[in-house]
Amino acid sequence: GALKADGRLVVVDFYRFRSREGRDPDWAKNHIRADRDEFRAEIEAAGLEFERTFDHLPYQYAMVFRKANR
Q: Are 31 and 18 in contact (CB under 8 A)?
Protein backbone atom coordinates (compact mmCIF):
# COMPACT_ATOMS: atom_id res chain seq x y z
CA GLY A 1 0.00 0.00 0.00
CA ALA A 2 0.86 3.65 -0.12
CA LEU A 3 1.28 3.96 3.65
CA LYS A 4 4.75 3.06 4.92
CA ALA A 5 5.01 0.43 7.64
CA ASP A 6 5.57 3.07 10.34
CA GLY A 7 3.36 5.71 8.69
CA ARG A 8 0.24 7.27 10.15
CA LEU A 9 -3.06 8.39 8.68
CA VAL A 10 -4.50 11.48 10.34
CA VAL A 11 -8.11 12.48 9.74
CA VAL A 12 -9.20 16.00 10.73
CA ASP A 13 -12.84 16.90 10.25
CA PHE A 14 -15.80 18.73 11.74
CA TYR A 15 -18.21 17.02 14.10
CA ARG A 16 -21.44 16.43 12.28
CA PHE A 17 -23.75 17.09 15.21
CA ARG A 18 -22.11 20.06 16.96
CA SER A 19 -23.57 23.25 15.63
CA ARG A 20 -21.29 26.23 15.07
CA GLU A 21 -22.23 29.72 16.21
CA GLY A 22 -23.86 31.69 13.44
CA ARG A 23 -24.55 28.56 11.35
CA ASP A 24 -27.83 26.93 10.60
CA PRO A 25 -27.87 23.66 12.65
CA ASP A 26 -28.60 21.74 9.45
CA TRP A 27 -25.42 23.04 7.79
CA ALA A 28 -23.21 20.26 9.19
CA LYS A 29 -25.78 17.54 8.49
CA ASN A 30 -25.95 18.65 4.87
CA HIS A 31 -22.18 19.07 4.36
CA ILE A 32 -20.57 16.32 6.47
CA ARG A 33 -21.29 12.75 5.38
CA ALA A 34 -20.65 10.98 8.69
CA ASP A 35 -19.59 11.64 12.25
CA ARG A 36 -16.37 10.62 13.98
CA ASP A 37 -17.46 7.15 15.12
CA GLU A 38 -18.67 6.16 11.66
CA PHE A 39 -15.40 7.29 10.03
CA ARG A 40 -13.41 5.39 12.66
CA ALA A 41 -15.35 2.19 11.96
CA GLU A 42 -14.85 2.57 8.19
CA ILE A 43 -11.11 3.15 8.54
CA GLU A 44 -10.68 0.22 10.94
CA ALA A 45 -12.65 -1.98 8.53
CA ALA A 46 -10.11 -1.01 5.87
CA GLY A 47 -7.37 -2.58 8.02
CA LEU A 48 -5.93 0.32 10.00
CA GLU A 49 -5.64 0.43 13.79
CA PHE A 50 -6.94 3.37 15.78
CA GLU A 51 -4.14 5.01 17.76
CA ARG A 52 -5.57 8.14 19.37
CA THR A 53 -7.99 11.00 19.04
CA PHE A 54 -7.76 14.71 19.66
CA ASP A 55 -11.12 16.22 20.50
CA HIS A 56 -10.24 19.34 22.46
CA LEU A 57 -11.45 21.71 19.73
CA PRO A 58 -15.08 22.83 19.91
CA TYR A 59 -16.08 21.88 16.35
CA GLN A 60 -13.33 19.63 14.96
CA TYR A 61 -11.64 16.38 15.89
CA ALA A 62 -8.55 14.53 14.72
CA MET A 63 -7.98 10.78 14.71
CA VAL A 64 -4.67 9.00 14.18
CA PHE A 65 -4.43 5.52 12.68
CA ARG A 66 -1.52 3.18 11.88
CA LYS A 67 -1.13 0.03 9.83
CA ALA A 68 -2.43 -2.99 11.69
CA ASN A 69 0.19 -5.42 12.97
CA ARG A 70 -0.66 -8.63 11.16
A: no
pLDDT tens-digit series, residues 12-67: 988 877 665 666 667 777 778 888 899 999 999 999 999 999 988 888 899 999 98
Say how far apart CA 30 and CA 57 lie, in whole Å: 21
Whether 65 and 8 have beta carbons less than 8 Å apart is answered as yes
CA distances from 13 to 57, 68, 70 (A): 11, 23, 28
What does the pLDDT read at residue 25? 64
Range list of β-strands (E), 1-70: 8-14, 48-54, 60-67
Question: What is the distance, to the nearest Å, from the Cα of residue 25 to the centroid of all Cα atoms in its chain?
Answer: 20
